[in-house]
Amino acid sequence: MVTAVAVLAVLLGMLFLAPPRGWSLFMLAVALVACWEWSRMIGLGSRGQSAYLFLSGALGAFFWLLHDRDPGGAFAEAAGRAFLCASIFWIVFVPAWLARHARPSPFACALAGWLVTWPTWFAFVALRDAGPWLLLAIAALVWIADIAAYFAGRAFGRRKLAPSISPGKTWEGVIGALAGVVAYGAVLSWISRARPLPFSELFTTEPTVAIIAAMLALAALSIVGDLFESWMKRGAGLKDSSGLLPGHGGVLDRIDALTSTLPVAAYALTLRSLA
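Above: the chain sequence. Below: its structure as tokens.
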């Protein structure tokens, strides 16, 4: 509980008070820690792990400078491409990998790690540039789905979702997560019509049913992200991605569901703005 409160305080403080450069640098540190945790799961060996971390740092520095120097031009273009690649990865490749139960080669896992971390960093930065409340609303969708799944699974869980990957997850928990997201979407829709919010336009210009359907799709993707990280940890014989957050594991353990939802949500919003 202490760790959760401390992390939430730091996250909200940075989200609403930090300048764009400070926020992107803060999230860069989070992404690099996530790359380090990922490198522990993929069997590269000590030299391969060092090379992976060096290249991750170089990529991170390049992306950060891109945002710092040209946030509306080159950065926005790179972010759009990252979101497209991440959407294909999470919607097509990850479900296929999970269905096959065949762990890819260390090289493929290394590339997958960058598709997990860097589009997520782009999404954290781009969505925050669009508005901190928008980013918080999308993140809250994932948190609500996770909390609802936990309580529904504890109360009604019988049928295992993926026993070989994450024995604690159940289909009843999935139903609870989707129900929680529907309730969250209904509340947001009602508030948006009663009092303008930074993201009220989504609910006032689009059919509520369509918005809630999109939210349900994101909730389903959040479960895929959670399962994928659990699958990688099991393949490496790890319970947690690291021990950096007492009682919570590592950074990837906290953002696993966000890695699959934020980039896809950002891509959907990008397509909407271009329509």
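The radius of gyration is 18 Å.
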